[in-house]
């Protein structure tokens, strides 16, 4: 099968039972998406498939043939972070950091659809991403900060 | 020689409410304390978390992300009955599965690993393990292992256990120690008899699960006789010791690494079955082996906050002075555990001459408890604080006023002063920020909603202590490595170390780098538990930095032809005082080449004649839907006195996190068991509810300004556990205030709330 991962074409031959999370983590060594529950309960494996947020642990790898997958590694780097990544760092929106990649991808999907979300809209869009450290207040602030940055960037 | 000061002394060390006598090293020198007014640049600043951007870019480094060459994967076979005896393990089908490499049963493992007992004593107990080339195959193979178990009668409740035979081998009595743990000061019976007013209430708190996002995990790899273990842990040095002992190998042959870890909250303080299984398979197979506990195993078999039943009687004078506090408690520990019970806070939080606690710690056929953020205090505060509210109603006193009349002025358990305790200021500042006394009970136009407010307080020993070491060394470019055998659970250990080191060196924040999480790279630091890390580590880091700075100044003095005493350091430069002459650290170290500037710091003992505590008060406002029973927490105001705050942003993050965990404890979290079978019923994060973004109130997390220089020379105390202690009773008190009905059983699920309304 062929798919695009973080903008690069990828050829892979996953087992029929392999999930997108297996493919990303075990075959492509992209460990940003986390395996925390492996049953669609926590959101730590959230990635974008054709721009929409998906739990990678519940998505079959083969269902992604021909599709465009984006993970936290494709969002930005420490040298050139995405505004969301910069905002998460600036607002201290990661404590242990384990759920953070999933939070970021859920937020990226939200901002692509809604560039100026209210607090309630952030809450509604991201309540499927658990954080046991309780970083939630700062996650909301970071998402809205990034939204402002992105809007300013597109207006400027 | 006769007058040489003693380098090693015996002192009292306190961890998670337990005290021990230990030999500790007295530091060679003690830096002058940084008082509350000290002019500090980095310490106290809102510096960014140094690895924040790494975490936001999907950093590798978590144990579960590790992919060693040729790494194999292990999975557990777990017991499905609560009590029984394994009579046979048949792994034939598992071994036949393509990709399966090995199987471990009891006969294959060293006794000291305590793996795979034939006596099954709880559901979820590991009875065998399988190793395969992939996690998927390992999991599939584990499901094919046939375990024959002869079932035996079990006991999963306190009542069953106290009436039945021992729930596990090697104990005669299910009551720990054969008797309740009794602690009394004064004469409670006489004081209650003489009290103007008494109230008695019963409370229950749920069994709560840590539910860290990263499960327990280890990767083990041997190089000849030498073992490297990557572990998601709160204590790299403790894991090293556990592994060496269990496998009977020298400590020098074991290296433990934890670069990043995805949460612990008390459940990751030791090596576990997963660690030993990874190490044993790795040795047998000659390849790296990962053992990552799956979510169901994580929720069943890696520790919990035990449930509690507590009966509290308070006696007071008519004007609201406590004269007696009495607690009777029953705690089902699981098949093992320790007496981290609710009793301690009853002896500590309020001034009261007569206090008695009787705690029954009972072994039952469920997985053993483990420390969980403020073990005991989080449960005890629910009962104590809700009983205080009941007393306030009885006395027709404002619950905040009742608390302020009973603030403890000294450590009554050991009859000594506090190094500092500004709880009364926390009440005052919290009430001001919250607007205590201003809120109403009704919501205009919404008769189905009722609002209420609650307050609760907290006390927790947070002195940290020895042993704890740090080494600082300058590199030839003037940057400095700050090396300590600590680890970062997500609290920001690296950032704090760098702030303290930069401060004491006179360096820039960018000029220092924390090296932690590797037993081969850094000297001993203790577990990150008991809210101890900063209070233990910061003084050692400061001392190491002062020693390194002294050496640097001596070297620079020669280069600048001045006396060392004429030099000072600022922002990475050595400067001749009152001039603009100077050299950057890099210029000094470049001249020295590989002559190394180093400093070594150790943590000295705490003062023995004073108690070091963090105190605080939290205020909650809730809205209860009386038709559905749903509780929504609207806002929390938290004010704590934790000495000097090294980084307010990180401290607030931890305080918010503790409050949110406390909210889960108050409203949703409860591991449920089927009493007939002993089976846990909610083993995933769907059925075991932890707070989500939608549950979060407005939180005002605030620390009083100050520095506790009587505690240590950095002036710091701990904050992590204090954060969770008052939240649940503040919320439960607010719900009772909203409804006008007491609710004394947590969590406050809709059906419980509706039940309370129906009464």
Task: Describe the protein's architecture and organization.
Chain A is built from 6 helices and 5 strands, in the order E-E-H-E-E-E-H-H-H-H-H. Chain A is α+β, with helices and mostly antiparallel strands. Chain A folds into 2 domains: 74 residues, Ubiquitin-like (UB roll), CATH 3.10.20.30; 73 residues, DNA polymerase, domain 1, CATH 1.10.150.120. In chain A, strands 2-1-5-3-4 form a 5-stranded mixed β-sheet. In chain A, strand 3 and strand 4 form a beta hairpin. The longest helix of chain A has 20 residues. The model of chain A has no long low-confidence stretch (mean pLDDT 96). Chain B has 759 residues and is α+β, with helices and mostly antiparallel strands. Among the domains of chain B are: 191 residues, Aldehyde oxidase/xanthine dehydrogenase, molybdopterin binding domain (Aldehyde Oxidoreductase, domain 4, 2-Layer Sandwich); 261 residues, 2-Layer Sandwich (Aldehyde Oxidoreductase, domain 4). Chain B contains 18 helices and 29 strands. Chain B has a 7-stranded mixed β-sheet, with helices on both faces. Chain B has a 5-stranded mixed β-sheet with strand order 9-17-16-15-10, sandwiched between helices. Chain B is globular and about 85 Å long. The model of chain B has no long low-confidence stretch (mean pLDDT 96).
């Amino acid at each position: 099968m062929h798919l695009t991962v973080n903008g690069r074409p990828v050829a892979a031959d996953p087992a029929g039972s392999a999930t997108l999370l297996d493919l990303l983590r075990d075959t492509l060594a992209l460990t940003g998406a986390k395996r925390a529950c492996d049953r669609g309960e926590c959101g730590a494996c959230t990635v974008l498939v054709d721009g929409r947020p998906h739990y990678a642990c519940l998505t079959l790898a083969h269902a992604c043939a021909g599709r465009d997958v984006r993970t936290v590694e494709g969002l930005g780097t420490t040298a050139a972070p995405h505004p969301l990544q910069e905002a998460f760092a600036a607002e201290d929106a990661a404590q242990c950091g384990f759920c953070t990649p999933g939070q970021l991808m859920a937020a990226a999907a939200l901002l692509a659809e809604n560039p100026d979300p209210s607090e309630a809209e952030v809450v509604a869009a991201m309540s499927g991403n658990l954080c046991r450290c309780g970083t939630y207040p700062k996650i909301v602030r970071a998402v809205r900060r990034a939204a402002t940055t992105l809007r300013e960037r597109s207006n400027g | 020689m006769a007058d040489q000061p003693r380098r090693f002394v015996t002192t009292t060390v306190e961890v998670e409410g337990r005290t021990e006598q230990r030999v500790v090293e007295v530091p060679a020198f003690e830096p002058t304390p940084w008082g509350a007014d000290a002019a500090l640049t980095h310490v106290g600043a809102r510096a960014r978390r140094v690895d924040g951007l790494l975490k936001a870019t999907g950093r590798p480094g978590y144990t579960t992300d590790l992919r060693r060459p040729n790494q194999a994967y292990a999975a557990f076979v777990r017991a499905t009955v609560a009590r029984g005896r394994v009579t046979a393990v048949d792994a034939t089908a598992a071994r036949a599965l393509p990709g399966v490499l090995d199987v471990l049963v009891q006969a294959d493992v060293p006794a000291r690993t305590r793996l795979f007992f034939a006596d099954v004593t709880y559901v979820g107990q590991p009875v065998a393990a399988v190793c395969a080339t992939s996690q998927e195959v390992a999991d599939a193979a584990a499901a094919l292992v046939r375990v024959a178990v002869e079932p035996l009668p079990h006991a999963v409740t306190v009542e069953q256990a106290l009436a039945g035979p021992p729930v596990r081998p090697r104990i005669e009595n299910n009551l720990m120690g054969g008797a309740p743990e009794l602690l009394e000061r004064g004469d409670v019976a006489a004081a209650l008899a003489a009290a103007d007013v008494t109230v008695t209430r019963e409370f229950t708190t749920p069994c709560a699960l840590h539910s860290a996002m990263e499960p327990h995990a280890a990767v083990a790899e041997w190089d000849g006789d030498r073992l490297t273990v990557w572990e998601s842990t709160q204590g790299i040095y403790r894991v090293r010791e556990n592994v060496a002992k269990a496998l009977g190998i020298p400590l020098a042959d074991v290296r433990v690494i934890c670069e990043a870890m995805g949460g612990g909250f008390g459940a990751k303080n030791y090596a576990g079955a997963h660690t030993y299984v990874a190490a044993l398979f790795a040795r047998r197979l000659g390849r790296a082996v990962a053992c990552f506990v799956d979510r169901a195993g994580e929720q069943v078999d890696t520790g919990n906050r035990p449930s509690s039943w507590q009966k509290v009687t308070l006696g007071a004078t008519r004007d609201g002075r406590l004269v007696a506090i009495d607690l009777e408690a029953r705690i089902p520990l699981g098949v093992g555990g320790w007496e981290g019970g609710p009793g301690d806070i009853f002896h500590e939080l309020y001034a009261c001459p007569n206090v008695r606690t009787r705690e029954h710690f009972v072994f039952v056929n469920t997985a053993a408890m483990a420390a969980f953020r403020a073990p005991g205090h989080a449960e005890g505060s629910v009962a104590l604080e809700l009983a205080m509210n009941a007393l306030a109603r009885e006395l027709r006193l404002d619950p905040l006023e009742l608390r302020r009349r009973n603030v403890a002025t000294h450590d009554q358990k050991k009859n000594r002063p506090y190094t500092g305790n500004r709880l009364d200021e926390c009440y005052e500042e919290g009430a001001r920020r919250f607007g205590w006394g201003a809120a109403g009970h009704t919501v205009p136009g919404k008769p189905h909603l009722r609002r209420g407010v609650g307050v609760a307080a907290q006390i927790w020993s947070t002195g940290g202590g020895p042993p704890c070491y740090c080494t600082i060394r300058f590199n030839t470019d003037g940057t400095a490595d700050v090396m300590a055998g600590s680890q970062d659970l997500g609290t920001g250990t690296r950032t704090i170390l760098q702030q303290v080191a930069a401060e004491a060196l006179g360096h820039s924040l960018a000029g220092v780098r924390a090296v932690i999480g590797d037993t081969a790279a850094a000297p001993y630091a203790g577990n990150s538990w008991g809210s101890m890390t900063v209070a233990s580590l910061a003084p050692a880091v400061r001392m190491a930095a002062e020693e390194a700075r002294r050496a640097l100044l001596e070297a620079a003095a020669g280069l600048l032809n001045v006396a060392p005493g004429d030099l000072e350091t600022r922002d990475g430069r050595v400067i001749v005082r009152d001039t603009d002459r100077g050299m950057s650290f890099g210029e000094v170290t470049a001249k020295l080449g590989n002559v190394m500037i180093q400093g070594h710091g150790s943590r000295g003992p705490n003062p023995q004649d004073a108690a070091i505590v963090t105190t605080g008060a939290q205020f909650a406002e809730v809205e209860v839907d009386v038709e559905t029973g749903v509780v929504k927490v609207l806002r929390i105001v938290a004010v704590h006195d934790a000495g000097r705050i090294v980084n307010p942003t990180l401290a607030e993050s931890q305080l918010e996190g503790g409050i949110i965990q406390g909210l889960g404890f108050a409203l949703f979290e409860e591991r449920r068991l089927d009493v007939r079978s002993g089976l846990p019923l909610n083993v995933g994060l769907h059925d075991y509810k932890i707070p989500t973004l939608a549950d979060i109130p407005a939180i005002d997390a605030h620390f009083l300004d100050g520095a506790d220089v009587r505690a240590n020379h950095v002036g710091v105390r701990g904050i992590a556990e204090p954060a969770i202690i008052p939240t649940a009773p503040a919320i439960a008190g607010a719900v009772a205030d909203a409804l006008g009905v007491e609710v004394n059983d947590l969590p406050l699920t809709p059906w419980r709330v509706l039940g309370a309304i129906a009464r």
